[in-house]
Amino acid sequence: MINYLALGDSLSVGVGAPAPQYGFVPRYISMTRKELKKYISCENMGVSGATSENVLDMVTKSDPVQVLIRQSDLITISVGGNDMKNAALQFLRSKNKSVLSTALKRFNCNFDNIIDTIHCLKRYNRKNYILRGINLYNPFPNTPGTEAWVRRFNQHIQSFEGKNIGIANVYPIFVGREKELLSSDKFHPNGKGYYLMAQSLYELGYYPLY
């Protein structure tokens, strides 16, 4: 059996999918089960609207979540989209670029601490585990300047790739295909978008877990 923990925001919840089973988490479970031929026990702790600060609070202050982290063989994290969205909306109102730079610095610090906390909680666990992140797509392709900031967020996320950490690079998948892959709210993926996200996670493989 594989213990899978999904952490993050509305992407982990599957907001925008036509039904819950069409989010990336259920689809990734299905792909993983077929690949590893093992039962997947999943705890989905995704929270709609969660920022990196909210996810950090969850992993550092929630005893039940810390127990799940210690027990998990496979962890996925979707975070950063709301940090970026909130900053972009504030920038559009104020035209103050420091809003974006401040949001990026805060996200970088929070993301560092999320990963460090997970590693610390797993420190004495002799079992192999893998951590999978998802970088950001740009839901505001027609807003000047947003592409550059999404790339900066992603640069930091990608920097964590290592022995047991893989980052699904979904950014290029969505470029130029926003109408095809985003739901009617024009922010969250639709069923096809979530499928491609799950496929990107699957293509990272499962080493050193299996």
UniProtKB/TrEMBL annotation:
**Lineage of the species this protein comes from:** Bacteria, Bacillati, Bacillota, Bacilli, Bacillales
Molecular function as annotated in GO: phosphatidylcholine lysophospholipase activity
Spell out the protein name for this chain.
Answer: Lysophospholipase
* The SGNH hydrolase-type esterase domain, residue ranges: 6-194
Q: Which InterPro entries match?
A: Ester_Hydrolysis_Enzymes, SGNH_hydro, SGNH_hydro_sf
Instruction: Give the Gene3D superfamilies listed for this entry.
Output: SGNH hydrolase (3.40.50.1110)
Question: What SUPFAM superfamilies has UniProt attached to this entry?
Answer: SGNH hydrolase
